[in-house]
């Protein structure tokens, strides 16, 4: 069974940091592009960041550039999202998902619907 599990969310104050983890079960995560997405109440789900499979190229949506960093650890079969300088506007349910097409992977910002295995997400709440 292929599964992704998100963890690491929580409640922090503005300017604080969180490190989200996405851990895969049932498949080697490093074979696939992985994306982080988020959805706030009343808003459409948006791509936050993604990392490719082959050369680990990274992409970020403009609003998080310079604050968030995506990385992957093959030994732990995990992908991380380090979030610094958090703002209340970052409050959302965060998901990781993978591009089921093995290889380099598609751009999660341009093709979010290509990614799947959303899991339950992890809640990030940033207070002012």
Question: Which secondary structure elements does this structure contain, and how are they paired or packed?
Answer:
Layout: E1 3-7, E2 10-13, E3 18-25, E4 34-39, E5 46-51, E6 58-60, E7 68-73, E8 78-83, E9 92-98, E10 122-127
Parallel strand pairs: 2-10
Antiparallel strand pairs: 1-3, 3-8, 4-5, 4-9, 5-6, 7-8, 9-10
What is the count of DSSP helices, taking H or I runs of 4+ residues?
Answer: 0
Q: Which shape, going by the Cα principal axes? A: globular
Q: How does the major sheet shape up?
A: 6 strands, mixed
Spatial strand sequence of the major β-sheet: 2-10-9-4-5-6
Task: State mean pLDDT (0 to 100 scale).
Answer: 93
Instruction: Tell me the helix content.
Output: under 10%
Low-confidence stretches: none
- Could you tell me the radius of gyration in angstroms? 13 Å
- Structure summary, number of beta strands: 10
**End-to-end Cα distance:** 40 Å
Share of β-strand residues: 35-45%
Structure commentary:
By secondary structure, the chain is an all-beta fold. It contains no helices and 10 strands. The chain has strands at residues 3-7, 10-13, 18-25, 34-39, 46-51, 58-60, 68-73, 78-83, 92-98, 122-127. A hairpin with a 6-residue loop joins strand 5 and strand 6 (58-60). It is globular and about 40 Å long.
A few lines on this structure:
With 128 residues, this protein is an all-beta fold.
Descriptive tags:
about 130 residues; mainly beta; globular
């Amino acid at each position: 069974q292929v599964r992704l599990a998100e963890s690491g969310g929580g409640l922090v104050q503005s300017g604080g940091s969180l490190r989200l983890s996405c851990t895969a079960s049932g498949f080697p995560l490093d074979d696939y592009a992985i994306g982080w997405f988020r959805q706030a109440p009343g808003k459409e789900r948006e791509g936050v960041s993604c990392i490719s499979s082959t050369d680990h190229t990274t992409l970020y949506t403009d609003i998080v550039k310079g604050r968030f960093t995506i990385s992957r650890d093959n030994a732990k079969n995990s992908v991380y999202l380090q979030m610094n300088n958090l703002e209340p506007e970052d409050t959302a349910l965060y998901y990781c998902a993978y591009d089921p097409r093995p290889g380099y992977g598609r751009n999660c910002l341009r093709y979010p619907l290509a990614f799947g295995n959303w899991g339950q997400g992890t809640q990030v709440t940033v207070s002012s």
